[in-house]
Fold:
Amino acid sequence: MNAIIEARELSRWYGMVMGLNNVSFEIGAGLTGLVGPNGAGKSTLIQIITGQLQPSSGQLTVFNARPWNNPSVLRRIGYCPEGESVPKDLRPLDWLKGLALLSGVARQEAEERCVAMLDKVGLARMHWSKRMRQFSKGMRQRVKLAQGLLHEPELLVLDEPMNGLDPMGRQEVSHILQGLAEAGVSIVISSHILAELEALCQNILILNWGRILASGSQRDIRADLRDWSEELSVQCDAPERLARRLFDAGVLLGFDIDPASGALRIRVKDSRSFYADWTGLLLESQVTVYAIRSQSRSLKNIFDKVTT
Amino acid sequence: MNIAEPPLQKAGAGAKVPTPLKLHPSFLGALRAAWLFAWKTEFTLRRVPVLLAGLLVLPVLVYITTPSPWAWRTRHLFLGFPQWQLERFYRQLDGEYLRIQPAQRSKLLGILKDEYARTEEELRQGESRQASKNQQNARIRACFERIRRRAQSVLNEAQFRQFSRFNARWLEEAQRRADTPRWRRSGPFYHWLIDFYFFVLLPLNCVRVSGAIIRDELQSDTLGFLITRPLSRAKLLIVKYVSQTGWLELLALAEALLLFASGALRQIPALWGLLPLFLGVQFLAVPAWSALGALLGLATQRYMAVAIVYGLIVEMGIGRIPTNINTLSLMRHLKTLLAHNAALQDIYAWPSVGAPAAVGALVFAALLFLFLAATLFTLREYHHTAEMQK
Structure:
């Protein structure tokens, strides 16, 4: 794999405060999620990737070059910052046009491209004539996303792009990002909304206290978690009987029955051997199963596991 | 957790990389963008009335505080007030027992009023035509000579001797008044225009606006949109500086024209002769002050306070030391250029030698400040969170 972003022993501190602590990683093409609580170092990392900050030690390269004050790298990166700050006295089309010109888009093409981007991010045309101070959070997020796409970047870096968007808006943005990824744009996205990242990103990078706790695909990370215990919720006609059978077979760490739904919640010792024996155990217990749901496959669960 | 810090794990693979779009970042395109941001931000329904009101405040103040020729005439006469002057003369005669008759008084008053009125009119016409001081003095002397001759026929010999002494004293006072009168009425106008507008308001405004070109973006957290564009930081600063300076030049031009119009309404003499020189010097001053503002704005958050300290130390302090060290002061070079106008030379008596060097110094200062600002912006990080914590 050709790494698009590569960090070696990268550290960044703000006076006495450590933003990133000696991290090394590679990010390749595709959609990569940055996950971490507030203060984990996500925004610091994004700002180093986009050439806004310099590493205190170590190095980070994007497209094999350092991004700080490097127009040849920056022309390949699109950036959508955190927060909802936009120039409030400008209209979206004027702002995008200016940014397109700054990016080197020809004057004749600039307006056409801005219109296309605003359409792409789904900002209704009735709002185009308004100054951005009148915009809602969600509308500002869309304009911010549009400006990041203006110069058709190869790498799109998005810091909390879902903030302020309603569920419909999130879905639309997810579709846009998936479309871009399919078109070959690499995307690095940080978000607190883990469910969104889980659906969107093949790869994740989990940060906490300036260190990378895990990185890679969700499946790889789960495989790396040695004390990983699968949690399942089973809807069936005889939860007690099933629980006894599984317990006798020695595959469970524990179980309980939800009094409200009657569902059996089990924690398995070794998920790989459990799934190998599962069908046989089910047939032996002669229980009718209506639904099985994994409680621990979510990104939130992975996140909780690696950060605790 | 065992998996902490995995060695160089690899995320994602296999997606095709698209051919990059052909972008042509150019200085001109960037300048166009910066100019678009500058004027689109300024021309809003909220800002235009404030802008216009701001431009009009000073010209209105100038108009109000500069006396009209008519008002000045009623309060300030070159030759004095005949009745008061004659009263003093009569008291002197009384003291010497040379009592003067009512008929003599009335004739004498008539002569003075008649001659004064005629001469005042001549002097005023001369003032508007910029007559030389010598011509004005000759007119005044002729006036008092005529008065003396006409008074001789009204007064007896002893009275006339006393009158001649008084006449000589009035002549002296009138000449002294006439020596400075050209700027006395227009004094408030020039103090507003030069001392306040050109040497206080214009520099402070340039520093305020140019100091904010990066600082405002930083504080409103929009700098990230600009510095992540495929443009070097130095180039970004320069296009922002050029567009902001262009905007300031337009505002300064409008303000200067309004001030001159205000002066013209008050019939300030020799005004239009000053206009081309003033606009030219202002055209040089704006980029120099703006470059200083850009540098201070990048160096510190409290750039206005630093600018005031700079003004007090360098411009007001070092700039007034009568040695070569005063060439460090930008104001000193601006004064050298403005001193080429006769009206200003009359008032301020600045040295006018070395105009080309003064122009060169102003251009050099602008380029030096801009170079330092661009270097600072290239090397230093500007971070919204750090800015807001200060």
